[in-house]
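Here is a typical sample entry:
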Amino acid sequence: MNSDQTLYAVFVPIESYTLTVLSYDQYNNPGSVALYIDGYYVGTTMDDYSVTEGQHTLEVPTQVGYHIFYAWYYDGNYHYNTQTTVSVYSDKTVTAYYIYPY
């Protein structure tokens, strides 16, 4: 720069969306399990959470009682790790499925 300049910062509000997190067993029985969003315990599944737009990491326990984690389901695909990353740019529903293998 060879002269004084004026700079302006423009702040755009970050959108907030509803993330609905559900959990079911293989017989479609609903259940609540501990839910972590971005590494923080937020409550249980079968509830709605307000999250900012962008990438969020969801995690649930590997086993609850005799039920073991099977997969997350969202965006038309299954994701088989207990920890998964979802892109939230609109309201979204994510489901954790557990199975009773015995």
